[in-house]
Amino acid sequence: MINGRRPKNNGGIVHKNAVDNVNRDLDNQNFDSEGESGRKHLTGREVEHLLEATKGGRNEARDRCLLLLMFRHGLRVSEACRLKLDQVDAESRVLLVARLKGGLSTTQPLRGDELRAIAAWLKERTRMKVPDTVKTFFVSEQRKPWHRSTVNLLLEKHSAAASLPVIAHPHMLRHACGFCAKLLP
Predict the structure, then answer these.
(1) From start to end of the chain, where are the E strands?
(2) What is the CATH classification number for the domain harbouring 177?
(3) Could you give the CA distance from residue 47 to residue 156 in angstroms, rounded to a whole number?
(4) Which DSSP symbol is given to 114?
(5) Number of domains the chain contains
(6) Most C-beta atoms within 10 A of its C-beta, which of 6, 10, 101, 123?
(7) For the residues of 31-86, what is the DSSP string, one character each?
(8) What string of pLDDT tens digits covers the 185 residues of the chain?
(9) Is residue 133 part of a domain?
(10) What is the pTM of this model?
């Protein structure tokens, strides 16, 4: 840091794919005195660091599954909090995304790492003995549906643990989904 700003670094590193190239470009941006250039998304690398920060935590399975699904499927925080058990079909490898704000609800495929995260969370959720009346996929330690403010606090905690250059908020994961998808060939 120089005078509260992150210096520009043009180290000439060659990256293997488009995501790394964009991550490099974003890493090389000059930041304003607030510490951030006003971007509204996380890079693929920052999402990886965020997921790594969940390891060893008290609610590792839940937190990892939540962050991964929010990122990969561009879920709004309210969509994630309202996600129901019957919307996640691990057997058929699909997620029914019920969009809010007039968005188009869709069925989206689940990848292998998402299925593993879902299986780990469902195993933990079963161990918690969540009442049958609670149909939401993600629940708190009190076995109740999550509130959006809880997800905000979770991201704040994991952002700090991951030493991200920003304090991530849930909508940054949604933007990251679209941002990273544009980079794929």
Answers:
(1) 88-89, 94-97, 106-109
(2) 1.10.443.10
(3) 13
(4) H
(5) 1
(6) 6
(7) --TTSS----S--HHHHHHHHHHTTTSTTHHHHHHHHHHHHHHT--HHHHHH-BGG
(8) 434 444 343 333 333 333 343 344 434 433 332 344 566 778 878 888 898 999 998 999 999 999 999 988 989 999 999 999 999 999 999 999 988 887 778 899 999 999 999 999 999 999 999 999 999 999 999 999 989 899 989 889 988 899 888 888 788 887 777 666 554 44
(9) yes
(10) 0.73
CA distance 159 to 167: 5
Residue 32 lies in a domain: no
Q: What's 10's DSSP letter?
A: -
Domain that includes residue 156, residue range: 41-183
Residue with tokens 């979770």: 154
β-pair type (106-109, 88-89): unpaired
Largest CA distance in the chain: 56
Is 12 part of a structural domain of the chain? no
**Residues, the chain, total?**
185
Tokens of 21: 């190239």
Any long-range contacts for 124-128 (C-beta under 8 Å, 24+ apart)? 124/59, 124/61, 124/62, 125/62
In whole angstroms, give the CA distance from residue 105 to residue 183: 24
